[in-house]
Amino acid sequence: MIRANRPRYAARLNAFKQLSPGSDVKDWIMAAGKVGGLGAADLNFPDHFAKHDATQMASFLSDAKLALNGVAMRYYTDPGFKLGAFTHPDPCVRKAAIDITKQGIDVCAAMGGKTVTLWMGQDGFDYAFQMDYAAAWDRTIKTISEVCAHNLAIDIAIEYKPNEPRAYALMPDIGTTLLACKEVSAPNLGVTLDFAHVLYADEMPAHSAALIGRHSRMIGLHLNDGYGKRDDGLMVGSVHAIQTVELLVAMLRMNQTDVIYFDTFPDMGGLDPIEEARTNVALTDRLMDVAEALADDATLADAIDKQDAAKSHRIVAKALYGS
């Protein structure tokens, strides 16, 4: 049964940069609007607002028939944050990161968005004896608490990743991320799960989703794929189709059916980004069909309850590949 509350899809706007040299975010939004099947967009802050203000950006989205899902904070483009944003040893730099984040929250609210995503790749370390881990953790928890309190109507989502650009991230996995959520204990704080990041962290996506559902809130879902050695950003279901279906089943059962964001990198391999996004839409539609068929399958539930992997895989294979 196809459910009425299927999620809208959004695509990574930076993927459309390669369509035209010298293009800017307005052009990328227009390109996303040509894909068909996309209904939402996420904007990077402050990067995407370098030439256009919030009013102009809202107009661009409207013209492309896209709604704003949320704003993703980007600190790594500023060389001043190379040693960290929330964990930087200089309190003035940390304050600058907080101020930028609050500006991003204000822009998100002004444009009718609902989520600000924190990907803190610059908050980490590269060497032993480089960082006071306890102090860095305390600074991060204090900063996230302040950011969450700035506007309780805007959800704040932590998107974890094992490393990159730093050799080690302060929050590299689901465990440390959920610990941070527990310590902050803000009603508008939760997690954005990125499929390729989860693989990279040597986790099973549906397992991580279940832990989020138990201890926090799933605020965002980034679908992509990869081989688990790095953040490959491959098309949805291209490597881990069964694991993707299992995650979608988990999301349906958690009623996480708002927006799926395709965080994929067609620019890395020179793919046509419009065709790549259309493939993501088509593949995810197909995998959603399978997930919806399996979510309420009593025979599958019984096999899982008995940990009968042979039986469950026959059921999943029939739904995914046909008899």
Task: Give the helices and strands, then pairings.
Blueprint: E1 8-11, H1 25-33, E2 40-45, H2 54-63, E3 67-73, H3 91-110, E4 115-118, E5 124-125, H4 133-150, E6 155-159, E7 168-169, H5 174-184, E8 189-194, H6 195-200, H7 205-215, E9 218-223, H8 241-253, E10 259-262, H9 266-269, H10 273-295, H11 298-305, H12 309-321
Parallel strand pairs: 1-10, 2-3, 3-4, 4-6, 6-8, 8-9, 9-10
Antiparallel strand pairs: 5-7
What is the third-level CATH name, the topology?
TIM Barrel
Q: Can you count the beta strands? A: 10
Radius of gyration: 20 Å
Number of domains: 1
| Unreliable residue runs | none
The CATH superfamily is known as: Divalent-metal-dependent TIM barrel enzymes
Query: Hey, roughly how much beta strand do the residues contain?
Result: 5-15%
Q: Which structural class should the secondary elements be placed in?
A: alpha/beta
Largest sheet: 8 strands, parallel
Helix content: 40-55%
Strand order of the largest sheet: 1-10-9-8-6-4-3-2
The total count of helices amounts to 12
Residue-averaged pLDDT:
96
- Spatial gap, N to C terminus: 19 Å
Spell out the helices and strands N to C. Answer: EHEHEHEEHEEHEHHEHEHHHH
Classify the oligomer: single chain
Q: Please report the first level of CATH classification, the CATH class.
A: Alpha Beta
Name given to the CATH architecture = Alpha-Beta Barrel
Described by the principal axes of the CA atoms, the overall outline is globular
What would a concise description of this structure say?
With 323 residues, this protein is an alpha/beta fold.
